[in-house]
Amino acid sequence: NAGVTQTPKFQVLKTGQSMTLQCAQDMNHEYMSWYRQDPGMGLRLIHYSVGAGITDQGEVPNGYNVSRSTTEDFPLRLLSAAPSQTSVYFCASSYGGQNYGYTFGSGTRLTVV
Amino acid sequence: SQKIEQNSEALNIQEGKTATLTCNYTNYSPAYLQWYRQDPGRGPVFLLLIRENEKEKRKERLKVTFDTTLKQSLFHITASQPADSATYLCALDEWNDMRFGAGTRLTVKP
After folding, report:
1. A48-89 pLDDT tens trace
2. Interface test with A, best of B7, B37, B97 (most A CBs within 10 A)
3. Residues 6 or more apart whose Cβ sits within 8 Å of residue A49
4. Which of A3, A32, A34, B25 is the most exposed place for a label (fewest CB within 10 A)?
5. Quick one: CA torsion of B105, A10, A104, B63, rounded to 10 degrees?
6. Are A24 and A91 in contact (CB under 8 A)?
């Protein structure tokens, strides 16, 4: 099992560019989430999904889109990158949401210049 | 507003002692609370989950308590080792929307 795989590991974008952060899991988990982590602010939930075809907003969804067409994949799209989106992004998945712990990917470090 | 507060940014203890980390929350009614460990440059790793009807949960040297009246969870590491040095995060959710505290950085000195 690879667990949760995030790509790329590092990315530099110019302001206004768009990109997609990829997240894939091979554990057949229904629940998937995206978080951003900034110094002193902890992990903040961007979007989450409780199954294929179902997504919902978290705490800080503005500037980001998600879709969940398959159980395995949960990509995060930055529509028009801004310096405020410079952060480390983590994808996580879980078998049953709050009933079970989450497995996290190793993160994508994004810098917007 | 909803808040999850972990008692301190950093905690330094001597090897062999018990580390106690605190997680307090306001304006939540979680059915579950979770604890994670995060090492620098890595994603969090799930450690323990405790349900609202469980007062205490143990796993090896780890012990978690959950007091829904005080709105507080305590996380204990007994017989601490330098390898336990990491940031520990508490997390809770109500409706599949899981939120994290900012974490406590634990350093265990030999």
Report:
1. 999 999 999 998 999 999 999 999 999 999 999 999 999 999
2. B97
3. A31, A32, A33, A55, A56, A66, A68, A74
4. A3
5. -10
6. no
